[in-house]
Amino acid sequence: MATETDTTTFDAGKLAHRLPDDALLHGGIVFAILLMASPLLLAIIMSTQSTTEVYQVTNLGLGSKGLSNYSDALVNYDFSTYMLNSFVMSVIVVVGKVTLSLFAALALVYYRFPYERAVFMFILLTLLLPVPVRIVPLFQLMADLGWTNSLLALTGPYIASATAVFLFRQQFMGIPASLVEVARLDGVGPLTFLFRVLIPMSRGMIAGVCVITFIYTWNQFLWPLVVVTDKSSQVVQVGIRYLQGSAQAGLTQWGLIMAGAVLALLPPLVVLIVLHRPLLRTLTIQQK
């Protein structure tokens, strides 16, 4: 008996000696990652299953539908049109918001005009009024202008951004004053200074704002649902809602819905992977 106890103690001690010191930490990190990724993994698995297989709670393996749910969503439910509309909307908002914010930050940093600080505070005050808060007057405005069911209505409310103006203003204020003075002595105009000095020195910040804006615009649901009634002009998030309305033998087709959700995830994921470094730099500046 004593011999068995000694052997067990020896094996446990030997195993503990062989394990790295941070094995427990690594195990915890892996578990946390799997826990956070579990909704996505479950969605991918369900996207390959038939309606009957989805309702079998214990069935956690890949289904018999393969990629047919994806092709059904893209072809039979016009999901490709919704994705194209969302992509066009996101690109227009990114280009418009970045351009407008760059000019606004240029004016706030390098021009002196009355009530300059009050203007900046007023811009920041608009953060308290996001689109969902002013959705009723916005819809009335779009209806009066005759812009409903159009790209103007989809993109217009998102072009101006206090957050982007604030980030670019902070970035421009960090540019050495000596460089600005040299440009003035050389007679460089404001637009030349913007395109040849400020933008090249702010490429990381611009890329970070583009990523944040693209993902934010891509995920819009409420405003497109309100202002667009034509299905052919609708965006991908509302398209997922349309998929939810499809049913097979009285059962919701969760496999089809999950296939649409996975498809809707891909463009922002690609943008995030490609431009994740400037995005991290932008978030670091925000923390400062």
Please give the order of strands in the largest beta sheet.
1-2
Query: How far apart are the first and last residues' alpha carbons, in Å?
Result: 63 Å
Stretches with pLDDT under 50, minimum 5 residues: none
What can be said about the biggest beta sheet? 2 strands, antiparallel
Structural class: mainly alpha
- Report the total helices: 16
Order of helices and strands: HHHHHHHHHHHHHHEEHH
Can you tell me about this structure?
This protein is mostly helical and 288 residues long. It has 16 helices and two strands. A two-stranded antiparallel ribbon has the order 1-2. α14 (236-244) packs antiparallel against α15 (254-274).
Briefly say what this structure is.
This protein has 16 helices and two strands.
List the helices and strands and how they pair.
Blueprint: H1 2-18, H2 23-46, H3 51-54, H4 68-76, H5 79-110, H6 116-125, H7 135-145, H8 151-155, H9 162-173, H10 177-185, H11 190-201, H12 203-218, H13 222-227, H14 236-244, E1 247-248, E2 251-252, H15 254-274, H16 276-287
Antiparallel strand pairs: 1-2
Helix pairs in contact: 2-15, 4-15, 5-9, 5-12, 5-14, 12-16, 14-15
